[in-house]
């Protein structure tokens, strides 16, 4: 199978599944990868849907800050 025919087959299958309403699409929480402003350690923060700026404390040094 060529790439084009595989792409068409995948699109067809998705269309058929969406018509049957078998797939449910839902939006959930988001994860933000933030870097500590004090020590530079990476932090992964779970954020509720719709929020942009979230307060968190660094997991390494405990510095309290807010995501951008």
First-last Cα distance: 46 Å
Question: Total strand count, please?
Answer: 4
Please state the structural category.
Answer: alpha+beta
Radius of gyration: 20 Å
What string, H for helix and E for strand, traces the elements in order?
Answer: HEEEE
- Largest beta sheet: strand ordering: 1-2
The major β-sheet equals: 2 strands, antiparallel
| Overall 3D form | elongated
Strand content: 25-35%
Task: Report the average pLDDT across residues.
Answer: 86
pLDDT < 50 runs, ≥5 residues: none
Q: How many distinct domains?
A: 1
What's the helix count?
1
Q: Level of helix content? A: 25-40%
What do you see in this structure?
With 68 residues, the chain is an alpha+beta fold. It has one domain (3-66). The protein has 1 helix and 4 strands, in the order H-E-E-E-E. The protein has one helix at residues 3-20, and strands spanning 30-35, 42-47, 55-57, 64-66. A two-stranded antiparallel sheet has the order 1-2. A two-stranded antiparallel sheet has the order 3-4. Strand 1 and strand 2 form a beta hairpin. The radius of gyration is 20 Å and the shape is elongated.
Keywords:
single chain, 68 residues, alpha+beta, two-stranded antiparallel ribbon, 4 strands
Topology:
Blueprint: H1 3-20, E1 30-35, E2 42-47, E3 55-57, E4 64-66
Antiparallel strand pairs: 1-2, 3-4
Quick recap:
This protein is an alpha+beta fold. It has one domain (3-66). It contains one helix and four strands; from the N terminus they run H-E-E-E-E.
